[in-house]
Amino acid sequence: MFGVDHGRRLSQPPSSGGRPVTVPTSQLRAAFAAALSRMYGAEVPAYTTLVDVTSEVNRDTAHSDRLGSLQRVTAERHGAIRVGSVTELADVADLFAAFGMFGVGFYDLRDAASPVPVVSTAFRPIDADELEANPFRVFTSMLATDDARFFHPDLAARVRSFVGQRNLFDPALIAQARRIATDGCPPDQADDFVRSATAAFALSREPIDKAWYDELAAVSAVAADIAGVRSTHINHLTPRVLDIDALYARMTARGVTMIDAIQGPPRTPCPAVLLRQTSFRALAEPRRFRGPDGSGFDGTLRVRFGEVEARGVALTRAGRARYDAAMADRGNWHRYFPGTDAEMAAQGLAYYRAGDPTRPVVYEDFLPASAAGIFRSNLDGDTTVTETADRATHYDLDWMAGAIGHHIHDPYDLYEKAAS
C-alpha cells in the first residue's frame, strides 16, 4: 500500500521485474489532493473549520458502504479552478492527465437561472478502482469570451490580449506532465512534480490592476476573477459529507455565515440522488491593488468560498428527465421518484451494479444549475447580460474536446460501464 498524506514523501514502489519503476497514479493523485488541501487551508483558514465539521458529521452519521466507504468519503475532495482560454484549458488537461484525471462532461453555465459567462468540464478519474483509490476531481471553468451577450467586441479583444500574454503554468511543468501521463512518474521526480503542480494554483500576491479588474467585475465577478489577474488559483476545495443538512446547521451554530440554501435536490425520504451542495459565504481576503498612476494600495476581494457536497446515486437519462421535472415541482418530489432503491432500479431511473439495488453507482459529477447557484450566492452583484446580442452557439462538448486536444467523456457512458 502506497499511502501518501500530511506531508509525507511519496514512498518507493517495489521492483517491477525489470520494467521502469513508477509511482502509482492514484498515489500521485492522492499526494496532489493532500498538498492542495494543506495549501488552501493555509490560505483560507475557514476551510479547515469546514473540513473539521465535515469529519465530525461523517463520524456521527450512521453509515454503511452503500455510497462509498467512510474512509473514501472522508478523504474525498473536489476542487474548482478557472481559466481564460482554450490554450490554458489544454495545459490544465495535460497537467491533470499526469494524475489520472480526465475530462468528463460539459457544463454550460451561461444559461442558468443565475448566468455565469463560463463553460466547464470536470477532470477526474474514470475507472472504478481509480475512483475508489482516490476520487479527486477538479471542476474547471473557461471564460466564454466569444459570447457577445457578456463581452462586447472591444472588451472581448482586450480580454483575449490580456489572457494571451500571461503564462499560468511553467512550460517545463506541462512538458513534465505530458511525459508522466505517457510513461509514468519516476519516484525521484514525484515529490518535486507534486510540489510544482500545487504551487501553480497558489493565490498570487502580485498587485492587481484595479481599473481593469473593476471593468470586468461590471460584467461578472467570475470574469474578473479569471481575466482580471495574471494567475489562477483554487476557488474552493470541497469535502464530501454524509448529512449536508446537519453540516449546514453545525456550521451556522459555529457562527460561520452560510449561503441561503442547499443547492440541488431537496432532502426527502426517497433515495438520495445526484448531488447536493452548499458553502460558507466567500470571505473578504486582503489583496494588493495598483492604481492608474502605478501606486499600490491594500484592499479586499470576495471570490473564494468553502463548498461542501453530499452525493447520491447516479441517474439514468430517464431518471435525469424525471429529476428535471421534479425540480420544477419540488414540493411533490414523491410523485416523481419512488421511495426505495429497488423501485428505482425496477423503473430504470438510476444505476446499480449488476442491477442490484443494494449496490448503487455513486454520482461522480456535477449539476450546472447547482454550480451556477453556488457561484451566484457568493457574488456581490449580478452578471450583466445583453439579451439582444448574439449568443455564441459553438460551445459544446465536441468543440471543447477538439479545442484542447483531449477526449471528454460522456458521463452516462461511464455510469453504464460501472453498472455492467
UniProtKB/TrEMBL annotation:
Task: Give the transmembrane region(s).
Answer: none
- Under Enzyme Commission nomenclature, its number is 1.13.11.93
Keyword hit for Protein transport: no
Q: Does the keyword Oxidoreductase apply?
A: yes
Uppermost EC category: oxidoreductase
Q: Which UniProt keywords apply?
A: Dioxygenase, Iron, Oxidoreductase
| Cofactor section | Fe(2+)
Q: Name one GO molecular function term.
A: dioxygenase activity
SMART domains documented for this protein: DUF1338
| Annotated stretches, region: Disordered | 1-23
Which family would the database say this protein is a member of?
Belongs to the 2-oxoadipate dioxygenase/decarboxylase family.
What's the protein here called? Answer: 2-oxoadipate dioxygenase/decarboxylase
Organism per entry: Mycolicibacterium diernhoferi
